[in-house]
Amino acid sequence: MKNILEAPFMVEMIRTATNMYDHGWDERNGGNISLMLEPEQVTAYLDAEGVLRTIPTGFTAPELDGKYFLVTGTGKYFKNVQYAPDVNLGIVRLRDQGRQADLLWGFADGGQFTSEFPAHMMSHVARLKVDDKNRVVMHCHPANLLAMTYVHDLDEKAFTRTLWQMCTECIVVFPEGVNVLPWMLCGTNEIGEATAEKMLTARLVVWSQHGIYGAGKDLDETFGLIETAEKAAEIYMKIAHLPRVNTITDDQLHQLERRFNIRAREGYLDD
Ligand code: 13P
Ligand code: ZN
């Protein structure tokens, strides 16, 4: 059996968590990542019958039965993932309508998956409905996006348009825009369901006064999505208190649509 710590998905997960920490997005235990794995990826490194223990999920998601996830642990620091991946990460396989998670590797100190497991798993279900290539759900606390939710209108169209106007390529990276949830209690099935609902129409969901969720086909793409939105929010927070002399116009955003062959979210331009 090959060494799982050398598996490309594991190396990428460790690098991504470290990079997120280095960006200041994941203070203390802030943030969590889940990466859906193909069965073949897992069985090359692990005995699929070797269940270490079973952890109840507290929700139902029949679509995920038999699916494998590499996921960060609750209370674990992204800072430490690189030093002790087998303590800070785990690999689980869901069964029993998604109600049970069999632990196959990791959480070596007796820990368990992130408290945001409902939001992650429900978001995977939602994203897979619109994109069967989706594999990643990522949550973190980037300072500028968070700051923006204190001073900007939380209307999704208004929030999205502001971000699009902050950097020329934002509309290219997230043409569907950014969805926004009001403040809600984190770690609950309720915020999980609300996040998943928002994930049906966009890969970015802001949690007001808390952070952001991103989804994508791989870790790099999902990281890049959040990175781009956070950069735009940073520009906004630098200029929000200053008179706006210039902006990116809707006409220019349309030029970007044509140049990059993308379509801005219906109804978000020209009014
Ligand atoms: P966990 O430590 O349970 O992953 O929680 C961190 C977090 O960001 C909650 O929203
Ligand atoms: Zn959080």
Structural notes for this entry:
This protein has helices at about 10-20, 40-45, 80, 85-90, 115-130, 145-150, 155-165, 170-175, 190-200, 220-240, 250-260, and strands at about 30-35, 55, 70, 90-95, 100-105, 135-140, 180, 205, 210-215. Strands 2-5-4-3-1-6-9-8-7 form a nine-stranded mixed sheet, sandwiched between helices. The protein folds into two domains: about 1-115, L-fuculose-1-phosphate Aldolase (3-Layer(aba) Sandwich), CATH 3.40.225.10; about 115-265, Class II aldolase/adducin N-terminal domain (L-fuculose-1-phosphate Aldolase), CATH 3.40.225.10. α5 (about 115-130) runs parallel beside α9 (about 190-200) and α6 (about 145-150) crosses α10 (about 220-240). The chain has about 270 residues and is of the alpha+beta class. The longest helix is centred in the C-terminal third of the chain and has 21 residues, at about 220-240. The protein binds 1,3-dihydroxyacetonephosphate and zinc ion.
Quickly count the helices. 11
Sheet with most strands: strand arrangement: 2-5-4-3-1-6-9-8-7
CATH class category name of the largest domain:
Alpha Beta
Which term fits the overall shape?
elongated
The CATH superfamily of the largest domain appears as Class II aldolase/adducin N-terminal domain
Count of discrete domains = 2
